């Protein structure tokens, strides 16, 4: 297999499942680090920021460089810092989203003042809170969604993902959001810019075709699908666009 300078790992389903590390993933990451290659970690989870992910990985025996962690909370904040630096931003999400925007010193406001509405996963959503953010969007705020995941892995199976809430809001407002997370390429572009890489030096690694693999394909970099996650090899082989590689275990990439 070709060697790369920027290995971009999905997290949940690829490096760990919930709170349980996937040991072969941890072994693979350590092998890359022994070769002098620090990987990137890319997750659609908007409820966490870089520090949260760094601490979680450390508990699993994986050392991560904080600046090489990209959550959709971080990516959304970086996007808004570039494109909406002077805007008044309403955040609908959890603590990781609020921390990421605070780190960029962005102007976060209440629902009555907002020019921009950024919507991430909010597991405390209620009818009232969803109605509030719906009205912020209906009143003219630019609609940004951290990600479009319909479901998310949980310890007992799957839970409702941010994308399902986004579809509710899009239906209620008649407005489609700008998506930040995979399969959109915002986070991969941030990686490329941060390291000065060319696209042929990058690879996206994950278990989910609709997010991880499509993200890499659309960004025109190589992709590695890892078995045992959301989509099987057989399911993916029915798709028009194929990953660069299929592997049964991550140790095959080193």
UniProtKB/TrEMBL annotation:
Stored InterPro entries: HAD-like_sf, HAD-SF_hydro_IIA, HAD_sf
Any one GO molecular function term: hydrolase activity
Protein name listed in UniProt: HAD-IIA family hydrolase
Pfam families in the record: Hydrolase_6, Hydrolase_like
Alphabetically ordered keywords of this record: Hydrolase
Transmembrane segments: none
Domain of life of the source: Bacteria
